From TrEMBL:
<dbReference type="InterPro" id="IPR042185">
    <property type="entry name" value="Serpin_sf_2"/>
</dbReference>
<dbReference type="Pfam" id="PF00079">
    <property type="entry name" value="Serpin"/>
</dbReference>
<protein>
    <recommendedName>
        <fullName>Serpin domain-containing protein</fullName>
    </recommendedName>
</protein>
<dbReference type="InterPro" id="IPR036186">
    <property type="entry name" value="Serpin_sf"/>
</dbReference>
<feature type="domain" description="Serpin">
    <location>
        <begin position="1"/>
        <end position="75"/>
    </location>
</feature>
<dbReference type="InterPro" id="IPR023796">
    <property type="entry name" value="Serpin_dom"/>
</dbReference>
Length: 109
């Protein structure tokens, strides 16, 4: 398990029945936003409702104790993201391609 105590950004999301917690990556401007269902069995409902623009969050800084299972993420570039930028012609041709989703791989340790 990974444990950390500190001041983190937190937001209540009543429309999702969840709380959002922002965890910044060290030495980076990137963050990970965790959505925590307020109902013990609310993960399925949260996943169905979660989409870009489905909510507006009002973050506040709070003292939080965070405990997460140890995991590792592979960088998107290592998962093939670099392939999207190999040939710029594919973005400007007659049939432009759209990226519908980017998936990260996470593994619990």
């Amino acid at each position: 398990m990974m444990h950390q105590s500190g001041r983190f950004l937190l937001a209540d999301c009543p429309s999702l029945g969840a709380t959002a917690l922002v965890l910044p990556y060290r030495h980076s401007g990137a963050v990970m936003v965790l959505f925590l269902p307020q109902d013990l069995y609310g993960l399925g409902a949260l996943q169905e409702q979660l989409s870009v623009g489905a909510f507006e969050l009002q973050f506040r800084e709070c003292d939080v104790d965070v405990s997460l299972p140890r995991f590792r993420l592979r960088q998107v570039r290592k998962c093939g993201e670099g392939d999207m930028h190999v040939d710029e012609r594919m973005w400007h041709g007659e049939r432009a391609l759209d990226i519908l989703a980017v998936c990260h791989e996470a593994a619990l340790q």
